[in-house]
């Protein structure tokens, strides 16, 4: 996609912040441009990492995540403040790349499962029907063979219509570490999964069998088909390539590991240590993962922070230099909050209307009510900590709390939210700063 097309796509989900969208669109387009160069030149063209500066809730993460999802790239969001310097108790920074690699492997597996969808479906159908039909005896006559094939075809048609979903068959359970979509779960989750399987049915060992419904068996057999039909080593190689050439790491709260120059007294020594540990990964190094060594030279790093108590120049110079593109995101005023509430493809208003429609309730909002919601949200952000668009979620929940609670009893009704209703729910809360702080 061209930078203009990328920005147009983002406009459907993120309101405003055009400068940030433009910067990231150019960075992603440059990755594609790099892949068109000869190999020697490719090695020398390094990604232009981005530093986003802005308060929480203004769209930093959403812009990055939407792009990664659109382009089917491995993406991971991590908080820099969660890491500790090597030698301290806590997570080490190399786990970022290990987690990104797991994400890439799942992404590649999903793509391959989709590509081999027909083969997987045929494998599952055959396995289920073989368990439901008595086996054809060896050396059966041609007539018996034809009768068996006719029975198989009838059974297949019934299976496709869902008429056999309630029947029970015996299947071999997958071992721990394999999820029911055929992907590998992260190593730290394998033990948890094994414990859950044991609690549910004493399972967790390869080869152990259990009787389940045909509907439940489908997922288990799809995982089995994925393992049988796909080449695991090729998947791993493809995942590593995807990480190395297209991986995106969103490094949030980077301001929390900066050491403000104007602060005197005892400093946390691990903050600068974490920065120094991050440096080799951002500059380019090789990290050992469970599926193989991953080179980080061309992974795109997008760092973000509010920088209320510190500034970008408080980061160590070497790390600053690895984020040449700087973009500042603007705070959200009343008008921006109104647009966020109403314009995005799956805006908050559309979400609540859809949720109430499930209960048979038609939910409508008067224009004046929407303006009031945006006004009170902006006011709450001014009076307390500015949490950006996230304030809209809190305010909307407050307004619709009673309706959500009793929606099942109001089936067939049309509920219109007017400005009087909004004011009755919010005016007193927003006027009292202490109440706002704890409730909104």
TrEMBL record:
Cite the GO molecular-function annotations of the record: ATP binding; ATP hydrolysis activity; peptidase activity
Sorted keywords for this record are: ATP-binding, Chaperone, Nucleotide-binding, Stress response
All copies of domain AAA+ ATPase, residue ranges: 46-329
Database matches in Gene3D superfamilies: 1.10.8.60, P-loop containing nucleotide triphosphate hydrolases
A single BP term in Gene Ontology:
proteolysis involved in protein catabolic process
Q: Which InterPro entries match?
A: AAA+_ATPase (IPR003593), ATP-dep_Clp_protease_ClpX (IPR050052), ATPase_AAA_core (IPR003959), Clp_ATPase_C (IPR019489), HslU (IPR004491), P-loop_NTPase (IPR027417)
GO CC, one annotated term: HslUV protease complex
Q: Does the keyword Transport apply?
A: no
Q: Which residues form the Clp ATPase C-terminal domain?
A: 332-426
Q: Which domain of life is it from?
A: Bacteria
Similarity field:
Belongs to the ClpX chaperone family. HslU subfamily.
Report what the protein is called: Heat shock protein HslVU, ATPase subunit HslU
């Amino acid at each position: 996609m061209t930078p203009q097309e990328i920005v147009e796509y983002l406009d459907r989900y993120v309101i405003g912040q055009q400068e940030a969208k433009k910067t990231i669109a150019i960075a992603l387009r440059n990755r594609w441009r790099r892949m068109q160069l000869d190999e020697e030149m490719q090695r020398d063209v390094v990604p232009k990492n981005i530093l986003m500066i802005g308060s929480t809730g203004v769209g930093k993460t959403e812009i990055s995540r939407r792009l990664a999802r659109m382009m089917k790239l491995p993406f991971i969001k991590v908080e820099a403040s969660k890491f500790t310097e090597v030698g301290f108790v806590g997570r080490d920074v190399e786990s970022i790349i290990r987690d990104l690699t797991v994400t890439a492997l799942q992404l590649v597996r999903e793509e391959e499962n989709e590509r081999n969808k027909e083969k997987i479906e045929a494998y599952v159908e055959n396995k289920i029907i073989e368990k439901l039909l008595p086996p054809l005896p060896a050396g059966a006559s041609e007539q018996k063979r034809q009768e068996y094939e006719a029975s198989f075809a009838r059974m297949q048609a019934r299976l496709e219509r869902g008429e056999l979903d309630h029947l029970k068959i015996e299947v071999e359970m997958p071992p721990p570490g394999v999820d029911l979509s055929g992907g590998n779960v992260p190593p730290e989750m394998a033990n948890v999964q094994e414990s859950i399987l044991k609690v549910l049915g004493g399972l967790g060992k390869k080869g152990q069998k259990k009787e389940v419904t045909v509907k439940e068996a489908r997922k288990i057999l799809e995982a089995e088909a994925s393992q049988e039909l796909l080449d695991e080593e090729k998947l791993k190689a493809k995942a590593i390539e995807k990480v190395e050439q297209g991986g995106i790491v969103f490094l949030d709260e980077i301001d929390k590991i900066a050491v403000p120059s104007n602060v005197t007294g005892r400093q946390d020594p691990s903050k600068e240590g974490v920065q120094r540990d991050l440096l080799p990964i951002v500059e380019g190094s090789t990290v050992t993962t469970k599926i193989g060594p991953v080179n980080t030279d061309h992974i795109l790093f997008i760092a973000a922070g509010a920088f209320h108590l510190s500034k970008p120049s408080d980061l160590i110079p070497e790390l600053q230099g690895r984020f040449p593109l700087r973009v500042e995101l603007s705070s959200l005023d009343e008008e921006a909050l109104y647009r966020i509430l109403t314009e995005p493809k799956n805006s908050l208003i559309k979400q609540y209307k859809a949720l109430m429609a499930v209960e048979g309730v038609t939910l409508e909002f008067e224009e004046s009510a929407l303006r009031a919601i945006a006004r009170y949200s902006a006011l709450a952000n001014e009076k307390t900590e500015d949490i950006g668009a996230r304030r809209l979620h809190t305010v909307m929940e407050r307004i619709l709390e009673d309706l959500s609670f009793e929606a099942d009893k109001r089936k067939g009704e049309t509920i219109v939210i007017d400005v009087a209703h909004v004011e009755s729910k919010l005016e007193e809360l927003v006027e009292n700063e202490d109440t706002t702080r704890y409730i909104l």
